[in-house]
Amino acid sequence: MARPAVRKAASHVAAGAPDAHSITINNGSQMVSQRLQPVIILALIGALVLVVGLWAKDRATRPDAGGDGGSAYAGREYQWKLVTTWPKNLPGLGKAPETFARMVREMSGGRLTVRVYGAGEIVPAMGVFDAVSGGVAQVGHGASYYWKGKIPAAVFFTAVPFGMTAQEMNGWLHYGGGEALWRETYAPFGVVPFAGGSTGVQMAGWFNRELNSAEDLKGLKMRIPGLAGEVFTAAGGTAVNIPGGEIYTSMQTGVIDAVEWVGPYNDAALGLQEVAKYYYYPGWHEPGAMLEFIVNREALLSLPEDLQAIVRYAARATNQDMLDEATARNNASLRTLIDEHGATLRELPEDVLDALYQNSRTVMQRLVESDRMARKVYESFNRFHDDVRAYHRISEQGYINARSRAYGETIPGVNPSD
């Protein structure tokens, strides 16, 4: 093979100063200048950067993009409205949406802020679902059984008479298929639900007269929503659904004779001890009432994935926080209601509970026969309820019974003669 000839550029020969970059290699007919190599490399790098940049921009500006949403989302801020079925800043129930808003703001570093509006500030209490569905607000906080006229199956996601406790409801929703059914139920309305808090087993309510037998239910007008309202009516009473902000006045003026709200802590916040004397238990109608956060689906999907996750986990944390607070505060609140306000604690007579239970079976049967989605949800709910009841009979209930015997516990007001 011929050895390549090496020549020095004339200009550099004249100067007597050879330059490595001016050396050319003659290999047959091909002459390649090393002076062009850096230019070519830089051009290739520039083209690559341009292509990658265009790809990243396209990916970041798509709402359904995966990952963290790309640089287009990095500095963007979102402002949401949250409407509730409660008076603003109401202790307990009204605190939950404020807690949610605070958690979202803190976890997002201020990229997503949520402003809370109480019932009546933007929409009336019973207009929350439609407001979120229609995009008037991005989030709502309330109770699913308020929408039973529009969505019969919704009652299962708040409370079913003689149904599951808060612990059991959380188990069904998050690990028993309940949440998936909840989302399926709300999907036609463009709304995504999340568990939004529970107060545990509620009280049966405040009454302006004693209940000595099931006969005393007849003609009694009571604020009691959801499926329990239908059961109460079937047992001879008259059920009405009144927003929380109107309950006190309705009792005070005699529009209603009785009211169920929540439990000692929340009831005291409404001042119900001032308008009724008899405080009955147990809460047959709402053994573990679950509240809800509902989010407009389009608004949720418009967020980058990290903010969507923050919304989910803020709801989950608020759900637990409400139960924790109710468990801690109901104890002292009950004692205050009895000792300082003169509330008379009473247990519902057995025949009253029997009548309510029998009527609840009839009402439930009518519901599942009239609505396909209600039947589908009921079948899942009932399977889980049967299983968890069997286990809790020997675990939770077994322990509580044993503890009561060990401590010789008595409850003031259990017997009407107390």
Automatic annotation (TrEMBL):
Q: Which Pfam families match?
A: DctP
A GO BP entry = transmembrane transport
Superkingdom field = Bacteria
Q: What is this protein called?
A: TRAP-type mannitol/chloroaromatic compound transport system substrate-binding protein
NCBIfam families reported in the protein's UniProt record:
TRAP_S1
InterPro entries linked: DctP_fam, TRAP_DctP_sf
Keywords, A to Z, come to: Membrane, Signal, Transmembrane, Transmembrane helix
Q: Where would you find the membrane-spanning parts of this chain? A: 39-56
